[in-house]
Amino acid sequence: MMYSEKVMDHFMHPRNVGEIEDADGVGQVGNPKCGDIMKMYLKIENNVIVDAKFKTFGCGAAVATSSIATELIKGKTIDEALKVTNKAVVEALDGLPPAKLHCSVLAEEAIAAAIADYKRRHGLDVENSECQGCCCKCETESEDSEE
Ligand code: FES
Fold it and tell me: How far is Cα 40 from Cα 120, in angstroms, rounded to an integer?
């Protein structure tokens, strides 16, 4: 089987699908490799992410990574959430096939975009957002797989 049980679980029963009407930050990104789209909604109180929801026109791997990513960032401060890399997300899913690693980038970038939106709305500095919607490094990163 190419996909871990965790991937299948989060694909079949994705957590946090939907939208937050009064979200404090909304981010949408597209995947240049496949054209899939991810939209992330964050509810933020005192710099802490208290709720996260997503919608996607993405594949199963994108659904699974976004599902677990929203679970990972809930309860974290926005700075902590920005440190949740797609590598951490993939590890939390017990791995993804190399050909699907670019899908996991979508969740990480959508979270970053939603946090950037939140910061913009609050007049905070937006750093590290130079490379939006770019996953050109996926293929080189996929070399260091564990198994
Ligand atoms: Fe597009 Fe996975 S194939 S996000």
Answer: 16
Total structural domains in the chain? 1
User: Per residue in 30-42, pLDDT tens?
Assistant: 988 889 999 999 9
| CA 60 – ligand 1 centroid, Å | 8
Distance 138 CA to ligand 1 centre (A): 12
Known active-site residue 34: yes
Query: Is residue 145 a part of any domain in this protein?
Result: no
Q: Does residue 137 lie in a domain region?
A: no
Question: Per residue in 3-22, pLDDT tens?
Answer: 999 999 999 999 999 999 99
Q: What is the pLDDT of residues 122-138, one digit of tens each?
A: 888 765 544 444 444 44
The catalytic position among 34, 59, 131, 135 is 34
Q: For 37, left (φ over 0), alpha (ψ -120 to 50), or beta? A: beta
Ligand 1 pocket member 115 (CB < 6 A): no
